[in-house]
Amino acid sequence: MSQNTTCVIIGASHAGVNLAFALRKEGWEGSIIIFDKDSKLPYHRPPLSKKYLELEDSIQNNLLKPEESYTKDNIDLQLGVSVVSINTEERFVQLDNNSVQHYDKLVFATGARAFIPPIKGIQQAKHVFTLRNANDVDGIRKALHTSKTKKVVVIGGGYIGLETAASLKKLSADVTVLEREDRILARVTTTYLSKFFDELHRANGVSIFTNKNVTEITNTNHVICNDGSAYEADIIIVGVGIRVHTELAESIGLKLENGIHVNTKTETSQKDIYAIGDCTYHYNGIYDRFVRLESVQNAVDQAKVAAKNICGKEIIYETLPWFWSDQYDIKLQIVGLADGHDDKVVRVEEDKKFSIWYFKGKQLLAVDSINNAKSYVLGTKYIKTKAEIDKIKLADPASDLKSIVVINQNEIN
Amino acid sequence: MANITFITSNKEKIVLEGDSGNVMQLAVNNGVQGIDGDCGGVCSCATCHVFVAEKDIDKVGKASDIEVDMLELADDANEFSRLCCQIEITDAIDGVELTVAK
Lengths: 413, 102
Ligand SMILES: Cc1cc2nc3c(=O)[nH]c(=O)nc-3n(C[C@H](O)[C@H](O)[C@H](O)COP(=O)(O)OP(=O)(O)OC[C@H]3O[C@@H](n4cnc5c(N)ncnc54)[C@H](O)[C@@H]3O)c2cc1C
Ligand code: FES
Known about the structure:
heterodimer; A: alpha/beta; FAD/NAD(P)-binding domain; Enolase-like, domain 1; 3 domains; 5-stranded parallel beta sheet; 10 helices; B: alpha+beta; 5-stranded mixed beta sheet; 3 helices; binds FE2/S2 (inorganic) cluster
């Protein structure tokens, strides 16, 4: 690898930034250039709906890396710059500041944007926010400060909507969550956990209404649902999921499928073009299927794998997914993917401290743990070692979690 | 204000001065190798594992329950292990020495 080669990374967030530093660690001697349309120094996204909002924290306290690190590792970080098109024949990217940049290796770390559903009046309504960037949160905080009623309607009861509801509650807002499905978190978890979070939010004074399909926002800022109900809102937060940034990838003909299709080496369908993080649809060897994940773990781990492959050290991506969410005094930690389970065991240690173990036959697929890091950690180990678990013992909180293994198969990691 | 010494896996000694926040932030902000802080300091990722020098363990304090549980993810954890995002920087920890886990 020569000093004259250039790696261009589109997107400077968890995936892109970790890739840049990992490339240097792996010995990449050429140039590294990262572009991001966001003009803030790259920051951690998870705190946005949590302590960044609640504690009115500064971005400076949430940086992925301090500014000097980029200079020290000779990483050319270009902020406030969008990549608008790509010429794969001549290998350059076109920027919105009218300049072009040549590349030898190109990486999509373009992540996703918040989805804005086609609700009548949403474009004209005042104080409507999504929550993906620091700017969104700054806007929410400002609106809250000037709001007299502090009435907030959150559209969508997923993790981000609920975390935002919890943070706003701590800022003394009057919060209502409207969920389209018949339970919150319907897209991402099972009924048991949905019920737990539903009760938690209600106990903290959040109003939750399910089966509410929002159809209109009126010019008096009332949120109207398909059943005719109306909710007054000074501030409206839309948390109904994301749309992967695939336009650029599509324009150069990369294979797309629920995101940018990559192989286990994070390579796209075209030579010398890679993709990592939220924007990828990738194979997970542990679960033997393709998935698209929205998590820091996936962004960081794929970045490390891409760095090695770009530097010519062949390695495949095979990691166990994990995720967390913090709401009030509750820490949810998830390891594995529960989809496809046919059995589950709930282990209750005490009030607000339990875990749910998901199985397919004898195989442990995933563990959700609530204020219960031990279950999370041992669950991680048991999934990795394909341990066979005594479900009766598991369900009994009096039995030690370390004594629940029947057979420990080969390590797969 | 506290001076904190980090010893990295390549035996580099780095002394840093901090006056607020947590030890993980101080390390990341100064590019201490081996401390990633992927979860941003909420005890969810275990990428900020350090060993506290034996002489300093009383000053720094032992790991909390959740830390002890999370530290089981690391094969080399011992009674001096801490997740340093959970160590607040105060005058009380001035002079401590932390070895970064591999
Ligand atoms: C509020 C919130 C809370 C979250 N909480 C958690 C949590 O608790 N735990 C967890 O594991 N995960 C959480 N996540 C998810 C996590 O933040 C994402 O998985 C992670 O940010 C993905 O990183 P990424 O780099 O792949 O993509 P992104 O973070 O989406 O970054 C993509 C970047 O690319 C830039 N970009 C895109 N196109 C272009 C272009 N053409 N030109 C220039 N720049 C471009 C964008 O501006 C953006 O900065 C949360 C996310 C949000 C929004
Ligand atoms: S930074 Fe994630 S556990 Fe300390």
